[in-house]
């Protein structure tokens, strides 16, 4: 039996690639998605497709009840920034930042990992091609890992040592796509866009879409997703 690992799975390109890497390393995947009140449900639908394609042993979706998250273009009726270049993306933390999201997601993954008896958690954060989110940086992940090993019964009693695996953290988007392609990831199953239309078609103009499209172009590949016309 392979070692178990909890995979935080959003349904996006990065988490799908992270799952493929973990599977290739011999882990049995226990995928965990979180419904935190996202305006658009397409990413949760994509997470289900990706979990199945990865052969996850289990896929759970946790719903956070109540108005926990707010003040973000991903949860509230705030306009999603469009047509920004890399320099503009790097200037400040954008309105698509969801307050403390990765801290909440990793805490849920930590609880699930302790329950199923594993110390291995995988998350697809990236500190190169990202939109300035503070909870995607290596120092943040290291701090969370330290906390995890102070805050759990299993770690205090010495039965588990928690590790937060971030295989994409220093990779460009093109490198991520090339690695995922090599591992057989079907990127047509994923969803990236911050502002899709009611059919789930990507806008092609938000930060997430622009980073994705630039990554495919740099990798010399064609993005299989359907984009809105114009």
Brief sketch in words of this structure:
This protein has 230 residues and is of the alpha/beta class. Helix content is 37%, strand content 11%. It has helices at residues 13-24, 42-54, 86-89, 101-116, 138-151, 153-156, 173-182, 207-219; strands spanning 4-8, 28-35, 58-63, 120-122, 163-165.
Account of the protein in words:
37% of the residues lie in helices and 11% in strands. It has helices spanning 13-24, 42-54, 86-89, 101-116, 138-151, 153-156, 173-182, 207-219; strands at residues 4-8, 28-35, 58-63, 120-122, 163-165. It is globular. It is built from 8 helices and 5 strands; from the N terminus they run βαβαβααβααβαα. It has one domain (4-219): Rossmann fold, CATH 3.40.50.620. α1 crosses α7 (173-182) and α7 (173-182) packs across α8 (207-219). β2, α2 (42-54) and β3 (58-63) form a beta-alpha-beta unit.
**Strands of the largest sheet, in order across it?**
3-2-1-4-5
Q: SSE order in H/E notation?
A: EHEHEHHEHHEHH
- Count of DSSP H/I helices: 8
- Oligomeric state as shown: single chain
Count of distinct strands: 5
CATH structural class: Alpha Beta
Major sheet characteristics:
5 strands, parallel
Q: How big a fraction of the residues is strand?
A: 5-15%
Radius of gyration: 17 Å
- Share of helical residues: 25-40%
Shape: globular
Q: Which residue ranges are poorly predicted, with pLDDT under 50 across at least 5 consecutive positions?
A: none
Overall structural class, as computed from helix and strand content, comes to alpha/beta
Task: Tell me the distance between the termini.
Answer: 50 Å
How many domains, as an integer? 1
Indicate the CATH architecture: 3-Layer(aba) Sandwich
| CATH topology type | Rossmann fold
Arithmetic mean pLDDT: 87
CATH superfamily membership: HUPs
């Amino acid at each position: 039996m392979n070692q178990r690992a909890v995979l935080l799975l959003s349904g996006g390109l990065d988490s799908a690639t992270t799952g493929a890497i973990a599977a290739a390393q011999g882990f049995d995947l226990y995928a965990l998605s979180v419904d935190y009140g996202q305006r658009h449900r397409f990413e949760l639908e994509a997470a289900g497709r990706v979990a199945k394609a990865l052969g996850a042993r289990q896929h759970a979706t946790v719903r956070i009840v109540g108005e926990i998250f707010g003040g973000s273009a991903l949860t509230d009726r705030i306009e999603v920034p469009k047509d920004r270049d890399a320099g503009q993306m790097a200037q400040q933390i954008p309105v698509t930042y969801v307050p403390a999201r990765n801290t909440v997601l990793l805490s849920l993954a930590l609880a699930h990992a302790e329950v199923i008896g594993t110390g291995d958690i995988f998350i697809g954060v990236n500190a190169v091609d990202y939109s300035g989110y503070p909870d995607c940086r290596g120092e943040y992940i290291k701090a969370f890992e330290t906390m995890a090993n102070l805050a759990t019964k299993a770690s205090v009693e010495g039965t588990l040592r928690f590790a937060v695996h971030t295989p994409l953290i220093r990779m460009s988007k093109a490198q991520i796509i090339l690695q995922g392609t090599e591992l057989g990831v079907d990127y047509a199953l994923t969803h990236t866009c911050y502002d899709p239309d009611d059919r789930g078609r990507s806008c092609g103009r938000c930060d997430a879409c622009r980073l994705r499209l630039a990554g495919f172009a740099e990798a010399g590949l064609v993005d299989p997703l359907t984009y809105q016309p114009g």
